[in-house]
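Amino Acid Chain and Its Fold in Token Form
===========================================
Structure side: the spatial fold of the chain, written down as a series of whole-number tokens.
Position: the record begins directly beneath this header, with no further notes in between.
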Amino acid sequence: MTTSKKIDVLLVGSGVMSATLAALLNELDNSLSMMMVERLPTVAAESTDAWNNAGTGHAGYCELNYTPMSDDGVVDIGRALAINASFEASLQFWSYLVEQKTLPMPKNFINPTPHLSFVWGNEDVDFLRKRYDLLKAHHLFADMEFSDDIATLESWMPLIMQQRDKNSKSRCNPR
């Protein structure tokens, strides 16, 4: 026997994205009827699971693929800016949920982690410098740093620099 139930929102998957969307929709309109379906026997067991997910909010700081360079050498930072703006909106939403006592204090679930992009070779170093110059000019990336100083690179990432040829051209921009 099949029964039908009217629902306003069907959330497919029981991971962090569905849970976040459900929380947001509930804040906007708590009269919505929602249903979450999951094919696995436990919730958040696929992409959200700690073994499958870095547990990070992507802010576009170090993901080089968010800033592609065209054949003519122009670096496009549009995607990194959009991703960072979305991350900032997430921070605002989480702050609101903390104020509403829906979430615990941020120190219980937000753990800032340094981000770092490292490249070597003339072509990649030139790309990283262009990327840095463009992003640094934007207020969302204002505290980004760039260095080609070996001692600085060793202090930022001692294990990576440990066996590296000190004469090879390498650069880094952490966040």
The mean pLDDT is 86. The beta strands are 9-12, 34-37, 116-120, 170-174.
